[in-house]
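Trying the structure run again after the queue cleared.
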Amino acid sequence: MKMKSVKAFLSIAVAASMAVSAPAAVFAEDTTAQEAEAQDSAEEATAEDFTIAFDGGKLSVTNQTTQTIKEAKLVEAAADDSEEADDSADDAKEAKMNLVLTEEDGTEHTFEDVTVDKWKDAVLVNSYEFLYINYKDESGKDQEAAETADERTFDEPITMYVSANVHVRKEADKESESLKVAALGDEFTVVAAVPGWFKVENGDDTGYVFHSYLTEDKEAVDALVKAKQEADAAAAQAAAAAAAQAAQQQAAAAQAAQPAQKTEVSRQAYDDCDGSGHGYYEITWSDGSVTYENY
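Done. Tokens:
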């Protein structure tokens, strides 16, 4: 397997900025406490940023994890039989590259089929013990690359809440069968995780939900639910008002389309003049017509 590797360039400046020193104090016990607090802060601080080199350039990655990446290398992915056949038909086809990050203790994290030369604003994050690289693509759209790793079962189930309507899928794959659509605010018991997905249980249902749509922050989800309810109520009220206005306009238009009713303007009586014993009325109407009526 062809290797294209380059060691991560660690930032000494960032390391220096992370150094914490306790100020002098009158009492030794206060100094000890401050030093302990400073040490805790240093341990919780993120590790150094690093750089990935590729043909024609390099990409700086902001490290928001506590894991120190001592090496970042691009490795040409092994092609399967079908890919080898395609390669023989098109020698100019670009090889797929995997990114391998190696920690100080030798732990490796592999990101498959990456195009780091097209990434911008890359940030390494750790979510439930899996590494992700968030970045912007060539169009400026936010994207995410997840490491390849096996599913991990949690020691204790975690209660999480849906932050937006989302499919619950049979497998941890966007193309997998959708078992149902979970609604904003739904509660799930999360029993395991795989990069990009949580394995969830809800009653008799077991499936996978994309990790970006689940959170343990119930308060935040409750706020989203309330905002949606208020928005739905406002939309319903606006729709009702629009419907009422449309009905009024339709009624007015229908009335305007009807011919105006004619009314009687005058009635002139003429007595019997032909010996029949009856007279008649000459009636003039609002539309200018004249009719006659015996009496």
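The two ends are 117 Å apart (CA to CA). Worth checking whether this holds up in the mutant runs.
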